[in-house]
């Protein structure tokens, strides 16, 4: 699916400024090509490159590489990405308008040693990633995607390759009601022993392959010894490798084989996994692409979007929102002079502090739409609707970072862009989730507001979002990128 998505991107002409893109259909294509965070970032890179953004590397110095009116992006671990465009009037100490999202979703990940057999079934050992609604994974057709580390036979280097085995390979079967008469009253299962996908039948004459000779030392068992051989063969075929021994390791996740799609009687819904939070990745990406070509020569700030991995497990990783990824990029940008050369005077640190004090961060993650069958789970005056616009999320205990100055700012932007807004507060007798907003606000001191598009069945293998909400959020983010630097000094705190 990734190759298909990339071919579609390369064949598309740049969208004329007077043409409206069908974002719902484009989002469905994006979802169907982004079955892992690695694929999502690769697809985002492709869109950015198509619109003239240049790739930078954290391994290099950026002296002389950053120019006013320039458009750039940088990735970390191939699963997090930051993209930005530099205003024509930019100088260190000026504000940065930032949107933030995350690329990961609750899923099942293949364990380092996944080979299992039981009652002559071949099973795959999986680990629960994040807080998924795991019962929704039963009886779904499951496929596999991720990245594989392969030895290049010509150079000896180990390189990363994306793989998407987009076919129904695995299944977690439920127990028949005849063997569990109480299943409709209470569905309980053991996540270690009963959330195991089956992948096939074990042949009576099947023996494990050995990829190393007995006199060759290896600190770990070979990839074929640790994993199902038929699965490895599928990966070898998909990547065009010569043999299983070319694979050093992989990071693979399971996903629902059923394609993402528009749904509802009037296509008002999007049915898919990973709406949390590829929704915000998609809307911030397209808003930045639009804003990058609008009045950039008059902009005295920087317009920046960030999408991080590992939000679903707390963000504490080298590529999570709790890492130094965004702070490091801001430090690099505020230590460069307007001509892109290094600002080597003692004021460089002061410029970073000035920029942080003037900047704003829109933390964008999906919100809880009111559920028509469980409306009593919502606070009575705060019931967001699908199709009614972005939801501003508020929590007195700072699980969300919204406060009045931020709300005033976003209201001004939404009024100008003709985007309706909704408000959400969790009921006092319900638990409240959180986002990357509090993490980055406390790490950087940047003013922050939490918002997101409403969806149903959050963290299920199959979620439901709104088609119209995509365009509304893109319009809001575009207004934020274009107008924030001129608005920020008018709201006095």
General description of the model:
It catalyses: Release of an N-terminal aspartate or glutamate from a peptide, with a preference for aspartate. It holds the Pfam family Peptidase_M18. Its cofactor is Zn(2+). This protein is an alpha/beta fold. It has eleven helices and 20 strands. It has helices spanning 2-11, 23-32, 37-50, 223-226, 229-239, 275-291, 325-334, 348-358, 404-417, 436-444, 467-487, and strands at residues 54-56, 71-76, 80-86, 96-102, 107-118, 121-129, 142-151, 158-170, 198-201, 247-256, 261-263, 269-272, 302-308, 360-364, 367-368, 391-393, 422-424, 447-452, 454-456, 463-466. The longest helix is centred in the C-terminal third of the chain and has 21 residues, at 467-487.
Q: Mind sketching the topology for me?
A:
Blueprint: H1 2-11, H2 23-32, H3 37-50, E1 54-56, E2 71-76, E3 80-86, E4 96-102, E5 107-118, E6 121-129, E7 142-151, E8 158-170, E9 198-201, H4 223-226, H5 229-239, E10 247-256, E11 261-263, E12 269-272, H6 275-291, E13 302-308, H7 325-334, H8 348-358, E14 360-364, E15 367-368, E16 391-393, H9 404-417, E17 422-424, H10 436-444, E18 447-452, E19 454-456, E20 463-466, H11 467-487
Parallel strand pairs: 1-2, 4-13, 4-14, 14-18, 15-19, 16-17
Antiparallel strand pairs: 2-3, 3-13, 5-6, 6-9, 7-8, 7-10, 11-12, 12-20, 16-18, 19-20
Helix pairs in contact: 1-3, 3-6, 6-11, 7-8, 9-11
């Amino acid at each position: 699916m990734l190759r298909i998505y990339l071919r579609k991107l390369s064949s598309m002409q740049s969208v004329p400024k007077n043409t409206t893109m069908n974002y719902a259909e484009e989002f469905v294509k994006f979802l169907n090509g982004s079955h892992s965070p690695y694929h999502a970032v690769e697809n985002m890179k492709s869109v950015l490159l198509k619109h003239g953004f240049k790739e930078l590397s954290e391994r290099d110095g950026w002296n002389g590489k950053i120019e006013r009116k320039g458009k750039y992006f940088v990735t970390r671990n191939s699963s997090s990405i930051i993209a930005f465009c530099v205003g024509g009037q930019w100088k260190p100490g000026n504000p940065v308008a930032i949107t933030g999202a995350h690329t990961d979703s609750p899923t099942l990940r293949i364990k380092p040693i996944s080979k299992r057999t039981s009652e002559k079934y071949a099973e795959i050992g999986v680990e629960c990633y994040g807080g998924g609604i795991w019962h929704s994974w039963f009886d779904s057709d499951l496929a596999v995607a991720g990245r594989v580390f392969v030895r290049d036979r010509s150079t000896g280097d180990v390189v990363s390759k994306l793989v998407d085995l987009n076919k129904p390979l695995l299944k977690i079967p439920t127990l028949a009601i005849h063997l569990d008469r109480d299943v409709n009253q209470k569905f309980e299962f053991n996540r270690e022993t009963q959330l195991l996908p089956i992948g096939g039948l074990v042949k009576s004459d099947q023996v494990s392959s050995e990829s190393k000779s007995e006199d060759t030392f290896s600190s770990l068992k070979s990839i074929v010894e640790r994993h199902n051989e038929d699965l490895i063969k599928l990966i070898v075929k998909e990547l065009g490798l010569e043999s299983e021994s070319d694979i050093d390791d992989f990071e693979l996740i399971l996903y629902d084989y059923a394609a993402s799609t528009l749904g509802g009687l009037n296509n008002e819904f999007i049915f898919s996994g990973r709406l949390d939070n590829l929704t915000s990745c998609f809307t911030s990406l397209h808003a930045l692409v639009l804003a990058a070509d609008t009045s950039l020569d008059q902009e005295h700030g920087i317009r920046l979007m960030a999408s991080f991995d590992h939000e679903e497990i707390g963000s504490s990783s080298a590529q999570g929102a709790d890492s130094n990824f965004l702070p490091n990029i801001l430090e690099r940008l505020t230590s460069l002079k307007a001509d892109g050369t290094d600002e080597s005077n003692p004021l460089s640190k002061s410029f970073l502090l000035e920029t942080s004090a003037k900047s704003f961060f829109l933390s964008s993650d999906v919100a809880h739409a009111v559920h028509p069958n469980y409306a009593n789970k919502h606070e009575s005056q705060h019931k967001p609707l699908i199709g009614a616009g972005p939801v501003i999320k508020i929590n007195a205990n700072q699980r969300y970072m919204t406060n009045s100055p931020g709300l005033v700012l976003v209201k001004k932007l939404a009024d100008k862009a003709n985007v309706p807004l909704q408000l959400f507060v969790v009921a006092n007798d319900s638990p409240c989730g959180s986002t990357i907003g509090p993490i980055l606000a406390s790490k950087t001191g940047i003013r922050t507001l939490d918002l997101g598009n409403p969806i149903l069945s959050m963290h299920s293998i199959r979620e439901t979002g709104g088609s119209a909400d995509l365009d509304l959020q893109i319009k809001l983010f575009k207004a934020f990128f274009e107008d924030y630097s001129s608005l920020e000094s008018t709201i006095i705190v």
